[in-house]
Amino acid sequence: MRHANPGDLKELEGLLGELRGVKGIVEKKSGIFYRKSKAFLHFHEHDGSLFADLRLKGTEFDRYPVKTRSDQARLLTLVRSIEFPSETIASRATRK
Question: Rounded CA gap, 11 and 16, in Å?
Fold first, then answer.
């Protein structure tokens, strides 16, 4: 398993574009995203397939396939749910 190279990341242009628009994460290097000061998301290639390593909690990363558009949509939904957890949205609505 190796980190994704520029050729690999080219296959993920649509996903990367969407991730760049997510508030709260910053792409410090191509395909490597940080949340606050910690690595949050990066990509790997293994046996012809692409994977995302996503830090949900603590220090460990969880691996997600991103080969297909549906894989990518699942990852993007997960990242967006971390950005705006439902508890935060509900608590904002009750404050109005």
Answer: 10
37, 24 contact by CB (below 8 A): no
The DSSP element (H or E) to which 39 belongs, if any, is strand 38-46
H/E element, 70? helix 69-83
Taking the whole predicted model, whether its pTM rises above 0.90 is answered as no
> What residues make up the domain containing 43?
2-95
- Total domain count for the chain? 1
Residues 6+ apart with CB under 8 A from 8: 43, 45, 50
Give 50-63 pLDDT, tens digit per residue.
Answer: 999 999 888 899 99
